[in-house]
Write a structure and sequence with these properties.
It is a single chain. The protein has 4 helices and 10 strands. With 157 residues, the protein is α+β, with helices and mostly antiparallel strands. It has a single domain (35-155), classed as OB fold (Dihydrolipoamide Acetyltransferase, E2P) (Beta Barrel), CATH 2.40.50. The strands form 3 sheets. The protein has a 5-stranded mixed barrel with strand order 3-4-5-8-7. The mean pLDDT is 87. It starts with 8 loop residues before the first helix and ends in a 7-residue tail after the last helix.
Amino acid sequence: MAKLKLKNEWKLWAGIGALFLLLVFYLYWVSRPPSEGEERLWRVTQTVDGRTLSLRGSGKIIEARLIGLRVPSSQETAARDFLAKTLNDKWIRFKVERENENAPTEGFAYISGEDISARMIRLGLATIDREEKSFDIRPYLELEQEAEKAKRGLWNK
């Protein structure tokens, strides 16, 4: 039987190795969470209540609460349903304002650049906490007055 002699077979193995590295890099690139500008996005896995969400992203799972909102008990179910319908299984940007060790992280949620807290107030599903000092509440007060004038949500009496 004739002996098969391969010359320069290292080139074949180098090519296979390079293809393998390209495949690994491609799989890493497509599996990472999306980002909006410099910020990573979080996937909403569950709506816990009318202002608390369970988020997954960058290998972590956190519980996040919309900061500065007060959801009256009469609107709790409607607020939870709104959040579930609007955010569940979607990618959102979550801007952290306050991190608590034994409580949910508090901040603002944005979907396609829209502030979810502002939308909830505009729809009359929540009011702004007037004692909140970590951000300017004036724009939210205007939205609350707009919802009250239009008799939306909790103002519909």
